[in-house]
Specification:
Bound molecules: flavin-adenine dinucleotide, nicotinamide-adenine-dinucleotide
CATH architecture of the largest domain: 3-Layer(bba) Sandwich
Low-confidence stretches: none
CATH class of the largest domain: Alpha Beta
CATH topology of the largest domain: FAD/NAD(P)-binding domain
Helix content: 25-40%
Number of helices: 14
Strand content: 25-35%
Mean pLDDT: 97
Number of domains: 3
Length: 468
């Protein structure tokens, strides 16, 4: 029987990063994955394929709506969905092959099959296509089995017309009318893809705004801009059912007045959150305890109630984000060898890859109000940015929240061009506990979108933005 120092179950961004860090630290490491390709939700059916389609659809949309303004004429513009989906598959393949290469490079044993506990130190790996299970012995286990889409019990998802994000990444035609249940991150990213390609898109949301957990100002501005590409929003609508009849779907909901509303379309995407995935692990055999909402219970070291068994990523508490899972993977590997790593959860940024992009880090204005914290606000609109005017991306703003007395940056919330990358400056500044004035006094290259961060910090410091 093969013996390992650490065995990681699940090869998503939590699992494969944990495995690499364990190997770097000299631990004999195995990685168990039930699917033939590595990379988990993120690389196969999440972050990477959705961004590939967001990029493709954005090119089309710009060619259709913005090129003329730049003096570029195009005749007979068409969309070839087969080619777009095949390109996306190619992007996924390049990424998952990259992970397989990294496993080899780091001498990590990849075991393909469903991993389950025999006891605390023994795991069984059952090939998904049948055949004999193998057993291994391990000193430590890192559970990184991720999550799956939430199912609404009153909706039968046939995965052809009533679908999850996984199928929404594989539609080989432009829908006529896509009804999206849920105005969260997945709903808005996929709504953007298909609205840009010409589909009518209706988003039906239970709450009274989109991306309700981010700073409220962001959802308001995003709604305005997405409205310009034709996405319709129906807020305070409680979905009660969805049915399919041939190629048509009907979604029913109850609106704020208690009236029943019907939506008719050809696709219905259900995007109402994700739930931790632990099926098949046989956690009882190891005595691992769970907590509410199907999550594995962990302490501040991400260790379960069983010493030597850890859990990370979507399967434990906290934001369901790839970079959060990655940080936790590194954290656990370093904890196992006796180091004292640290994760600042407040500074894990959240990003929505619509256009304009949306990002936030630190406290929102609503949270600061709730805490009774005295704060000041500095804001800078992209319509006053030279770079944004040049590219024609003038929607959105950067908002900096700073402590009223000390000027320390407490939160940064942005909506605008390429701010998925720009938020990294805010994270760096906050990690070093910078004041708004610290950032305001740093040179930012001109012309760049990043200047909006400097200007918002100037505005927060003493209301002394230069270009506003
Ligand atoms: P996962 O990536 O879910 O990986 C878990 C792995 O464990 C899977 O491969 C699964 O097959 C395997 N597994 C499960 N049980 C077993 C078992 N018993 N034996 C063997 N293997 C098992 N996050 C971002 O930060 N940015 C984004 O842009 C982004 N976009 C997204 C877009 C979509 C459409 C979706 C659905 C998600 C997106 N996410 C994004 C979220 C991100 O994908 C997850 O937060 C991330 O993948 C979680 O990583 P993980 O390692 O915890 O689990
Ligand atoms: P979400 O939690 O972001 O949004 C779900 C939305 O559905 C919420 O706004 C909620 O109010 C609404 N909702 C719930 N039940 C409803 C009902 N019955 N009727 C109408 N609306 C309803 O979840 P998601 O969009 O499914 O994404 C799942 C996870 O994946 C998130 O945690 C997210 O962090 C992650 N993800 C991240 C990215 C990114 O980082 N860019 C992209 C995609 C997914």
């Amino acid at each position: 029987m093969n013996q390992y120092d650490v065995t990681v179950i699940g090869s998503g961004p939590g699992g494969y990063v944990a495995a690499i860090r364990c190997a770097q630290l000299g631990l004999k490491t195995a990685l168990i994955e039930k699917y033939p390709t590595l990379g988990g939700t993120c690389l196969n059916v999440g972050c990477i394929p959705s961004k590939a389609l967001l990029d493709s659809s954005e090119h089309y949309h710009n060619a259709h709506t913005a090129f003329a303004d730049h003096g570029i004429g195009l005749d007979n513009l068409t969309v070839d969905m087969n080619r777009m989906i095949d390109r996306k598959a190619g992007v996924v393949k390049a990424n998952v092959d990259g992970i397989a290469y990294l496993m080899k490079k780091n001498k990590i044993d990849v075991l393909t099959g469903v991993g389950s506990f025999v006891d605390k130190n023994h795991l069984s790996i059952a090939p998904t296509e049948g055949g004999e299970a193998q057993q291994i012995e391990t000193k430590n286990v890192i559970i990184a089995t991720g999550s799956k889409p939430t199912v609404l019990p009153f909706i039968k998802q046939d995965k052809q017309r009533i679908i999850t994000s996984t199928e929404a990444l594989n539609i080989r035609e432009v829908p006529k009318h896509m009804i999206v249940i849920g105005g969260g991150v997945i709903g808005l990213e996929m709504a953007s893809v298909y609205a840009r390609l010409g589909a009518k898109v209706s988003v039906v949301e239970f709450m009274d705004s989109i991306i309700p957990t981010m700073d409220r100002g962001l959802g308001k501005e995003l709604r305005r801009v997405l409205g310009k590409i034709g996405i319709e929003f129906f807020f305070s609508h409680k979905v009660t059912g969805a049915t399919r009849d041939g190629d048509n779907v009907t979604v029913t909901a109850t609106n704020a007045k208690g009236e029943e509303v019907k939506f008719e379309g050809d696709y219905c995407l259900v995007a109402v959150g994700r739930v931790p995935y632990t099926a098949g692990l046989n956690l009882e055999a190891a005595g691992v305890e769970m907590e509410e909402r199907g999550r594995i219970k962990v302490d501040e070291h991400l260790q379960t109630n069983v010493p030597g068994i850890y859990a990370i990523g979507d399967v434990v508490r906290g934001a369901m984000l790839a970079h959060k899972a990655e940080e936790e993977g590194v954290f656990v590997a370093e904890t196992i060898v006796g180091q004292k790593p640290h994760i600042n959860y407040l500074l894990i940024p959240g990003v929505v890859y619509t256009w304009p992009e949306v990002a936030g880090v630190g406290y929102t204005e609503e949270q600061l109000k709730e805490q009774g914290k005295a704060y000041k606000v500095g804001s800078f609109p992209f319509k006053a940015s030279g770079r944004a005017r040049a590219s024609g991306d003038t929607d959105g703003f950067v908002k900096v929240l700073a402590d009223k007395t000390t000027d320390e940056i407490l939160g940064v919330h942005m909506i605008g061009p390429r701010i998925a990358d720009l938020i990294a400056e805010a994270v760096t500044a906050m990690e070093f506990r910078a004041s708004a004035e610290d950032v305001a006094r740093m040179s930012h290259s001109h012309p760049t979108y990043a200047e909006a961060m400097k200007e918002a910090c100037l505005a927060a410091t003493e209301n002394r933005a230069i270009h506003m």
